[in-house]
Structure formats: C-alpha cells, structure tokens
Amino acid sequence: MKEQKRFRWSGFSYTTRLTVMFALIAAMTALVAMGVVSFVWEEHFKTYTTENMNTLAETTARRIGQSYAKTESLDDPATISPAVQASEMTSGVAVRVVDAQNQTVYDSSAVVEEVLGGRRWYQSLEPLDPSRVATAPIISEGKTVGSVRIWVYGSETLMRQPDQVFRQNSYQAMLIAALVAILLASCIGFLFARGLVRPINRMSKTATAITEGDLSARTGLRGEDEISRLGETFDEMAEAVEKDRELERRLTTDVAHELRTPLMAIQATVEAMIDGVYEPDEERLNTVNSEVQRLGRLVDALLKLSRLENRSTPMKEEKVNVGQLIAGIVATHEMFVADSGLTLNYHADDDVFVLGDPDMIRQATANLISNAVRYTKEGGRIDVTVGKGDLMASIAVKDTGIGLSPEEAKMVFSRFWRADAGRNRDVGGLGVGLAVVKEIVDRHGGWVKVEGEKGKGACFTIYLPLYAEEKPGWPAVGLGRNGQKPQKSQKPPKKPRR
What we know:
Elements: H1 14-71, H2 81-89, E1 93-99, E2 104-107, E3 111-116, E4 119-123, E5 134-140, E6 143-152, H3 161-211, H4 226-274, H5 282-309, E7 318-321, H6 322-339, E8 343-348, E9 353-356, H7 358-374, E10 381-388, E11 392-399, H8 406-409, H9 433-443, E12 447-453, E13 457-465
Parallel strand pairs: 8-10
Antiparallel strand pairs: 1-2, 1-6, 3-4, 5-6, 7-9, 10-11, 11-13, 12-13
Main location: membrane
Catalytic activity: ATP + protein L-histidine = ADP + protein N-phospho-L-histidine
Protein name: histidine kinase
C-alpha cells in the first residue's frame, strides 16, 4: 500500500503560505467585524423597530382620544378611524382597539371563528406575549377610555417585513464585503510574497552557483531594507570567500614555489656531487647547508604563523614598558642596520605601558625593522618611534625605501607577498614576516596602519591599547587579550581596511 501523504504546512512554498495567511487574517477580521456589527446591529435595530411601533401606537391612541372627545363613544366608526388608517397604511401591522373594560372595539386581525344563532364570533390574532405588542392608552380629558394595541404579523420583535428585508440585505452586503476583502487580501498577500521572495530566491540561486564553483556569482541587491542589506552582506561574504579562495590558490602556488627552488638547488648539487661533476668540498656543502637552513626558516616561519592564527601559542599578559622594550631591539639591530649602509634613529615618549606579551611585541617590531632594512637602499634612513596617545600606544617604523602604492598597502600582510622591487630572493625575505606582525598585533587587541608613497618610503605603525593601573571608581584604560574596544566618545584613529 502506498503511504498516504500527510498535510504539512512546511511543504508549501513561502509565497503560498504568506498568501493563505493574508487571506486567513482578512477572513478572521471580517468574521470578527461581522460578529460585532451583527450584535450591535441587532440590539439597536430591535430598539429602533420597537420605538417605531410604540410611536405608531401612541399616535393612533392620541388621535382616537381626540375623536372620542367629540363623539364620546368608541363604537363610533369616526372615533376608531385612526386605527383603521394605521392598519391599512402600515403593511404587516395589526391594530386592535379595546375599551376600558378590555372589550374589543376594533381588531384588524380578527377572523370569524364561528356563527351561532346568527351571531358572528371573532378570534383575535394578538400575541399572548406582551413584549410582542406595542400598547398605548387612549386618554380623553384626563381619563383613560381604552387602549390601542399594535403588533407585527409573524414577528417576535415588532419588526415589519420591509425592516426584515433591509436587515437581510445588510447581512448579505457584509458577507459580500467580507468575501471581497478576503480576495483582495489574497491578491495583496500574493504580490507582497512575490516581492519578498524574489530577493531571497536570488540569494538562493547565488549560493547555489557559489556552491557549484562559480565564485563570481553575486546577488546584486541594493537598498535600505533588511533583505537588501542582507543581500549586500551576502555579496560581501561571497567576495571575501572568492578572495580567500584566490589567496588559498596563490598560497599553495607560492609555498610550492618557495619550497621547489631550494629543493631543486639541493637536488642539483647533490646529484652533481654523486655523478662526480662537483667535488664534495666545503663550498658545495655550504651551498647545500644554506638552502637547507632556508627551508628550515621557511617552515619555522609558516609554523609560527599557523600557531598564531590558531591561538595555539600561549600569550603572556605582562605590564610592558614599550619604550624600554623597543630600545633594546634598536640596540641589537644597530650593527645590522649600519652594515647595510643605513642610519637608524630612535625616539620614545616616557611611561608608555601596554598589557601584553613582550616577546611577541619584540618579534613584531624586529620584523618591521628587518623589512625596512630589506627595502631601503644604501644611504637611507630608518626612524623608530614610540608614542603615547590618549588610549593607544604606537610603535612606528618609517623608512626611506622603495615605498608602497595604495594597492600594495592592501596586500602587504598577505603570505609570501613581496614588493615588486624586492622579489629577488637574495634581497627579499620569506614573505611571511608582515603576516606574523599582523597576527601578533591582532592578538593584543590592536592593529597596524600602513602609509607610504611609491619611491619615497613607507611607515608601519603598530597601535596597542595603553595600560593603566586600576583606581577606585576608575576603569583601566589598557586592554588585554580580549581586545575590548574603547568608548565611542574616545574612538582612536580608524583601522585601515586590508
């Protein structure tokens, strides 16, 4: 037996569900409105028809009373003529006039019941329920001489046939209005759902295209509403994924290239020595050793960068005097800078403290100085400056080297990236030093600012949150490893986008 399909609301499309919801809301609103209106309508309409009958009874009784003052008899046809006129002019209404002894004088509803001894006996159709009868006394000269009783045939609420037709037509009109409202709500809901789902479908198709390998697919949504902003964010994410994938491919290529060159040099040298082309002398062995050391440095740098990115390297949190720390680094690099034919200048503000790992900060600064030496020609100058701002400490390394263009400034922290003039492996480094700098600074809750001009030098500035001793009632200014941001009212310079 085939399994019967169960009704599942989630099985319908979003457009269908939203259309049905609009229709149900309209139907519910119409039903509630009809219920409230019907209740109020019935109560007020009953009161209205009852008042009409009471007014008719009072008017008829008053006219009969005026006639009675002239004839002094209810049996006179001229006296009860107002009752006859009321019954004839008002369709569906019965009028009965009785005297003070409750004897019937006139009854428009009376029918002959039987004839006995030549005398006719009449039976009145007046309802037994007094609430279905409008009664008014006949008063003449201050004396009640009888009463007028009026009721409506076949109605328990003194409602005439035209009134009943009007009420029925009113309910039909409300029902038609409800159906029209449901239809319009369904159409509006369908159009609204189509407009709402269209950008979602575009994002879904774009996501499918990206999944299938088309990383250039974009939604192209623009606007101020939430879905448009979601589309823009999705496009930014897709662009970041495309860049990361491109970076991954380039990284694979660069790693293979970086490893292939020294390996080929080692292989060629060793094979030449095995074949007897080269003697295994000290010079050849030093060549092999230098390439092996280069491979070791490259692998060590990649491992260090990977540990920084994965947060597997423990980070110490110490109060660090940045001026003293960088002074030691400058001192150890003076001979290296001088041997390169460059001038090294150093300046530091007093009492610049941060909370962080001194070894990591030392490594980041050393990488920047080595990078400046590598890309600065002989006779140039390198300036190292430690500054203290309101919230941030700064470590700036400025050189007069080959400089950077704005496009290159966005790429300097990518792995294996080198400036065009420094791609020679004899001059350029491993290509991961600046990536290590950025990861170290990120772990300290800071950032690196890059400035430069082609042919005029570059300046790399590390910003780290200042440290201050906590005092009662005063929060610490320094920020630890969590990278807590300062208040908006004291916002530091903007972090440059990569």
